């Protein structure tokens, strides 16, 4: 018998926000890179290349990691707005 999340007592939520950011992927870019608005394009290009390299690797672990990283979820506009000079953040 398969145990579902409901049986384990977990409540599924449609809330994808994370620490005041629109989602976890966007929050992680901010936490790990602490970018300025001028850094964002370079970070985006580097992440895209690295994930592509992982996805095209012959190593199973690399392929797993590539599947785990959701670049499409990152809200680059939110990051750019947050990192504008003199920006006041209304998040949590």
What does this structure look like?
By secondary structure, the chain is mainly alpha-helical. It has a domain at 24-82. 46% of the residues lie in helices and 0% in strands. The chain has 4 helices and no strands. It has helices spanning 24-33, 40-55, 60-68, 76-82. Helix 2 packs across helix 3. The longest helix has 16 residues, at 40-55. The protein starts with 23 loop residues before the first helix and ends in a 10-residue tail after the last helix.
List the helices and strands and how they pair.
Blueprint lengths: L23 H10 L6 H16 L4 H9 L7 H7 L10
Helix pairs in contact: 2-3
What features would you highlight for this structure?
mainly alpha, 92 residues, flat
In short:
This protein is 46% helix and 0% strand. It has 4 helices and no strands.
N-to-C series of helices and strands: HHHH
Task: Specify the structural class.
Answer: mainly alpha
User: What is the CA–CA distance across the termini?
Assistant: 41 Å
Fraction in helix: 40-55%
Can you tell me the overall shape?
Answer: flat
If you compute it from the alpha carbons, what radius of gyration comes out, rounded to the nearest whole angstrom? 17 Å
Number of helices: 4
Strand content: under 5%
The averaged pLDDT comes out at: 85
Query: What is the tally of beta strands?
Result: 0
Unreliable stretches: none
The profile of the biggest β sheet is: none
């Amino acid at each position: 018998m398969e145990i579902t999340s409901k049986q384990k007592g977990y409540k599924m939520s449609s809330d994808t926000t994370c620490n005041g950011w629109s989602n976890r992927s966007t929050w992680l870019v901010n936490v790990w890179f602490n970018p300025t608005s001028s850094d964002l394009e370079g970070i985006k290009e580097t992440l895209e290349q690295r994930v592509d390299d992982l996805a095209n690797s012959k190593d199973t672990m690399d392929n797993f990691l590539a599947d785990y990283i959701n670049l499409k979820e990152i809200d680059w506009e939110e990051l750019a707005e947050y990192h504008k000079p003199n920006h006041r953040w209304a998040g949590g």
